[in-house]
C-alpha cells in the first residue's frame, strides 16, 4: 500500500504504526488521513479508533460483510469503511476525497445489507423524522448514505455546495447527531432509510 501511495504526487506517506502506537503516531505527525487495516473490532480497537478519529480523519479497511461493524466504526467517527479488495484507484480517490472534505464512504456490499440490521429501539425516531424531512433533505440523506461528497451532491441535485451544507446541517439537527457519518449510521439503524424507500414507492403508486 505504501509503495502504491508513494507514486502519487499529492499524497505523502509519513509513517505507519500498529496497535496502541497508532494514536501516538497520529498525535505526533498530525496526518490529514490515517488508514487503519483491521480484520476485527474489539473493545480495545473501538477505543483506539475513537481516539484516532478525534485526531485525524480515519479510513477503516475491513471485510465488507461485517455490516454491523461498519455501523459501529461510523459511530466512532471513522470517515470511510472500505473492503480489503478495494481497487487501488478507489482507495486513492477515497483518500483524496476524505482529506479535503467531510464526506464518508462505506462499501456497496455493506450498504446493500444495512437494511437488514435489527431496529429494536429506533422505529419511533424514524416515524418522527421522516414526516419532518423536506423533499430536498430526503434526497440529500439518500445521497449521504451513498457516500457522496458535498460537491457530488451539489452536482447531482443542481444546487450550490453552500445549500448542500445547509441541508446537511438541518439533517444532523433532526437526527440528533454531530457528523454525517453518524447520521448515516442512525439512518440505517433506525430504519429511516427503509421508511424513506417505502414512502418513495407509495408516492410512485399514487
Question: Could you describe the 3D structure shown?
Answer:
Residues 126-191 form the HTH luxR-type domain. Keywords: DNA-binding, Transcription, Transcription regulation. It holds the Pfam family GerE. By secondary structure, this protein is mostly helical. It folds into two domains: 2-107, Response regulator (Rossmann fold), CATH 3.40.50; 118-201, 3-Layer(aba) Sandwich (Rossmann fold). 58% of the residues lie in helices and 6% in strands. It is built from twelve helices and three strands. It has helices at residues 2-6, 21-29, 43-55, 67-75, 88-100, 108-113, 123-129, 135-145, 150-157, 161-175, 180-189, 192-205, and strands at 33-37, 57-61, 80-82. Strands 1-2-3 form a three-stranded parallel sheet, sandwiched between helices. α3 (43-55) links the parallel β1 and β2 (57-61). α4 crosses α11 (180-189), α9 (150-157) crosses α10 and α10 packs across α11 (180-189). The chain starts with a helix and ends with a helix. The mean pLDDT is 76.
Provide the descriptors you would attach to this structure in a database record.
globular, 6% strand, mainly alpha, 58% helix, Rossmann fold, 12 helices, single chain, 206 residues, 2 domains
Tally the helices: what do you get?
Answer: 12
Low-confidence stretches: none
Main pleated-sheet profile: 3 strands, parallel
Proportion in helices: 55-70%
CATH topology of the largest domain: Rossmann fold
Category by helix and strand content: mainly alpha
How much strand content do the residues show? 5-15%
Question: Which of globular, elongated, flat, extended, rod-shaped describes the shape?
Answer: globular
